[in-house]
Amino acid sequence: MHVCLDTPVGARLCTPDGQEIATPVTLRHSSADPDTVRLAFPPHVTLDGRAA
Q1: Which of 17, 19, 28, 42 has the fewest CB atoms below 10 angstroms from its CB?
Q2: Residue 45 lies in a domain
Q3: How far is it, in rounded angstroms, from Cα 35 to Cα 33?
Q4: Residue 22: inside a domain, yes or no?
Q5: Could you tell me where the beta strands, DSSP code E, fall in the chain?
Q6: Is position 51 within any domain?
Q7: pTM of the model
Q8: 21-46: pLDDT as tens digits
Q9: 28 with 4: CB under 8 angstroms?
Q10: Confidence band for 51, pLDDT divided at 50, 70 and 90
Q11: Domain membership of residue 10 as a residue range
Q12: 45 touches 23 (CB < 8 A)
């Protein structure tokens, strides 16, 4: 049986111009892949800064 854990946390994204943007993220861990922790960002956070 695989166990999955989701934990909401806060993170700060550093932009190329030196700004820090606070955003909520979720840490995800699955016993199916025990060496991996994934960060899940909300849909409004994008790499190019434009809303999705």
Answers
A1: 17
A2: no
A3: 6
A4: yes
A5: 4-14, 20-30, 37-40
A6: no
A7: 0.71
A8: 899 999 999 999 999 999 999 888 87
A9: yes
A10: low
A11: 4-40
A12: yes
